[in-house]
Amino acid sequence: MESILIAILKAIIFILLFLTFSAVLTYVERRISAFIQDRLGPNRVGPFGLFQPIADVVKIIFKEEIIPANADRTLHTLAPIISLFVAYSVFAVLPIGEKLVIDGKEIKLVLADVNVGFLYILALSSLGVYGVTLSGWSSNNKYSLLGALRASAQMISYELSLGLSLVGVVLVSGSIQIDEIIRSQANVWNIFYQPVGFIIFLVSVFAETNRLPFDLPEAEPELVAGYHTEYSGMKFGAFYLAEYTNIITASLLVTAFFLGGWYFPFVDIYSGLNPNLSAILQVIVFFGKASLIIFLFMLVRWTLPRFRYDQLMRLGWQVLLPLALLNVLVTGLVKILL
Amino acid sequence: MTQTKIDGRAKTREIKRKANLNLLERLYLPEIFKGLSITFRQIFKPKFTFEYPDVKWQPPASFRGRPVLVVDDETGVERCVACGLCARVCPALAIEVVADETELDKERYPKKFEINMLRCIYCGLCEEVCPEEAIVMSKEYELVFTSREEAIFGKDKLLTPASKLKDRLEFLRKMR
Ligand code: SF4
Ligand code: SF4
């Protein structure tokens, strides 16, 4: 009974945490985009415009919802729900810290402590493409459909290199449990063992989250808004939220797999500390590192132009995939020989 | 590459395109990092935004805001002699002048002078044609009205003392 209560409480706290983080992220992204373009960005609502996300949410809830006359109503409604559901399911297995000790009870800072978390994440993240594809299919709009087709092709192509680049990590860390992988990096981060894997993973993650330079499913100059052209109101908001949640999860994953999670290289700052204090520190460090990765996402967005479709496919199949395979091979050989 | 200019003369311009990129350049990553660092530095550059309602843009003397009628500072009478040239030249047919006689030296004055601000295109031709330098373009660019009637500016809104238009008057003399 008590454990169920704790689980529910944890789930609520996690969801609130991610919701707040993505709300803040929309604001930060707009501000930084503006700064990069020598503008000021939203600065009217509240101090420094900090309440802008609240205003946005209130606005988007009260917007009229339009479903195109010939759209498939069921799928049209279902698509954003799938997107959001998948985005929020992925972080269920993501540990954000070690454990809290309350009343002598240990509470692990992860929603579902499964030992195949790694596979779960890979499986679910490819499910996300259903939301995108269905939204494009059900909208009865050629631009939406084109965006959806691109999204599915892109996701399938990059899923492979994404998974393969992680095989190297698994080989180095010797586990497919995410908190084990993080703990194995207490001294040396995986990025030093797996620099090529890191780059492949990072590029694939950009493609998986549909961010520039791989935002072909949206590609506003060509496809109006791509798969969510026909969405409005809170359904559009759901896609938007899913996109930001995916970005957060992706950066947390990059941090967990390659940048040592909550550890700093060569120094263990958590050894002598009270477990609760160190847990809080861990969460802060973990999210801090992830924020830097998110910042990188934003920088890349305003630096690189969008890929052409054939370039995208060539990069995925002819460069990243062979490189990932080679990486696995070399890592395996080194593992055996040393 | 050869480009043909609009006037028909051919103009050759060399476009430098390095065909053989070296290995580092073909790896893309170093170049991407260069690009990222440029983007990053851009964040700290000064911003160009005017926070408009709080900070207002001060137009230069060459700016063509809404046309106004000049009132002489000494006499307190408008300079316009109601010759009707401005109404005649206005390409948008925005000006209506009705002349009348007066005891003053200038003998004629506009009994009614109206500019329809919905029609005006801020071309400045009225200013250019006026023999008395009586109508000039002001610096005012905030024009708001809620009905068509309100958009017709009569003498009450058009008359402006010359002291307030000094910038523009000096500019006109300089450019003549
Ligand atoms: S041209 Fe000048 S003087 Fe003549 S009517 Fe217009 S404003 Fe008056
Ligand atoms: S600025 Fe041009 S359009 Fe406007 S009143 Fe003068 S002549 Fe007419």
TrEMBL record, chain A:
<keyword id="KW-0830">Ubiquinone</keyword>
<dbReference type="InterPro" id="IPR001694">
    <property type="entry name" value="NADH_UbQ_OxRdtase_su1/FPO"/>
</dbReference>
<keyword id="KW-0472">Membrane</keyword>
<comment type="subunit">
    <text>NDH-1 is composed of 14 different subunits. Subunits NuoA, H, J, K, L, M, N constitute the membrane sector of the complex.</text>
</comment>
<feature type="transmembrane region" description="Helical">
    <location>
        <begin position="188"/>
        <end position="207"/>
    </location>
</feature>
<dbReference type="InterPro" id="IPR018086">
    <property type="entry name" value="NADH_UbQ_OxRdtase_su1_CS"/>
</dbReference>
<dbReference type="Pfam" id="PF00146">
    <property type="entry name" value="NADHdh"/>
</dbReference>
<keyword id="KW-0520">NAD</keyword>
<feature type="transmembrane region" description="Helical">
    <location>
        <begin position="279"/>
        <end position="303"/>
    </location>
</feature>
<dbReference type="GO" id="GO:0003954">
    <property type="term" value="F:NADH dehydrogenase activity"/>
</dbReference>
<feature type="transmembrane region" description="Helical">
    <location>
        <begin position="244"/>
        <end position="264"/>
    </location>
</feature>
<feature type="transmembrane region" description="Helical">
    <location>
        <begin position="117"/>
        <end position="137"/>
    </location>
</feature>
<protein>
    <recommendedName>
        <fullName>NADH-quinone oxidoreductase subunit H</fullName>
        <ecNumber>7.1.1.-</ecNumber>
    </recommendedName>
</protein>
<feature type="transmembrane region" description="Helical">
    <location>
        <begin position="6"/>
        <end position="28"/>
    </location>
</feature>
<feature type="transmembrane region" description="Helical">
    <location>
        <begin position="315"/>
        <end position="337"/>
    </location>
</feature>
<keyword id="KW-0874">Quinone</keyword>
<keyword id="KW-1133">Transmembrane helix</keyword>
<comment type="function">
    <text>NDH-1 shuttles electrons from NADH, via FMN and iron-sulfur (Fe-S) centers, to quinones in the respiratory chain. The immediate electron acceptor for the enzyme in this species is believed to be ubiquinone. Couples the redox reaction to proton translocation (for every two electrons transferred, four hydrogen ions are translocated across the cytoplasmic membrane), and thus conserves the redox energy in a proton gradient. This subunit may bind ubiquinone.</text>
</comment>
<comment type="similarity">
    <text>Belongs to the complex I subunit 1 family.</text>
</comment>
<dbReference type="GO" id="GO:0009060">
    <property type="term" value="P:aerobic respiration"/>
</dbReference>
<feature type="transmembrane region" description="Helical">
    <location>
        <begin position="158"/>
        <end position="176"/>
    </location>
</feature>
<feature type="transmembrane region" description="Helical">
    <location>
        <begin position="78"/>
        <end position="97"/>
    </location>
</feature>
From TrEMBL, chain B:
<feature type="binding site">
    <location>
        <position position="120"/>
    </location>
    <ligand>
        <name>[4Fe-4S] cluster 2</name>
    </ligand>
</feature>
<protein>
    <recommendedName>
        <fullName>NADH-quinone oxidoreductase subunit I</fullName>
        <ecNumber>7.1.1.-</ecNumber>
    </recommendedName>
</protein>
<keyword id="KW-1278">Translocase</keyword>
<feature type="binding site">
    <location>
        <position position="90"/>
    </location>
    <ligand>
        <name>[4Fe-4S] cluster 2</name>
    </ligand>
</feature>
<dbReference type="GO" id="GO:0048038">
    <property type="term" value="F:quinone binding"/>
</dbReference>
<feature type="binding site">
    <location>
        <position position="123"/>
    </location>
    <ligand>
        <name>[4Fe-4S] cluster 2</name>
    </ligand>
</feature>
<dbReference type="GO" id="GO:0005886">
    <property type="term" value="C:plasma membrane"/>
</dbReference>
<keyword id="KW-0874">Quinone</keyword>
<feature type="binding site">
    <location>
        <position position="83"/>
    </location>
    <ligand>
        <name>[4Fe-4S] cluster 1</name>
    </ligand>
</feature>
<comment type="function">
    <text>NDH-1 shuttles electrons from NADH, via FMN and iron-sulfur (Fe-S) centers, to quinones in the respiratory chain. The immediate electron acceptor for the enzyme in this species is believed to be ubiquinone. Couples the redox reaction to proton translocation (for every two electrons transferred, four hydrogen ions are translocated across the cytoplasmic membrane), and thus conserves the redox energy in a proton gradient.</text>
</comment>
<feature type="binding site">
    <location>
        <position position="86"/>
    </location>
    <ligand>
        <name>[4Fe-4S] cluster 1</name>
    </ligand>
</feature>
<feature type="binding site">
    <location>
        <position position="126"/>
    </location>
    <ligand>
        <name>[4Fe-4S] cluster 2</name>
    </ligand>
</feature>
<feature type="domain" description="4Fe-4S ferredoxin-type">
    <location>
        <begin position="111"/>
        <end position="140"/>
    </location>
</feature>
<dbReference type="Pfam" id="PF12838">
    <property type="entry name" value="Fer4_7"/>
</dbReference>
<keyword id="KW-0520">NAD</keyword>
<comment type="similarity">
    <text>Belongs to the complex I 23 kDa subunit family.</text>
</comment>
<feature type="binding site">
    <location>
        <position position="80"/>
    </location>
    <ligand>
        <name>[4Fe-4S] cluster 1</name>
    </ligand>
</feature>
<dbReference type="GO" id="GO:0005506">
    <property type="term" value="F:iron ion binding"/>
</dbReference>
<keyword id="KW-0479">Metal-binding</keyword>
<keyword id="KW-0408">Iron</keyword>
<dbReference type="GO" id="GO:0009060">
    <property type="term" value="P:aerobic respiration"/>
</dbReference>
<keyword id="KW-1003">Cell membrane</keyword>
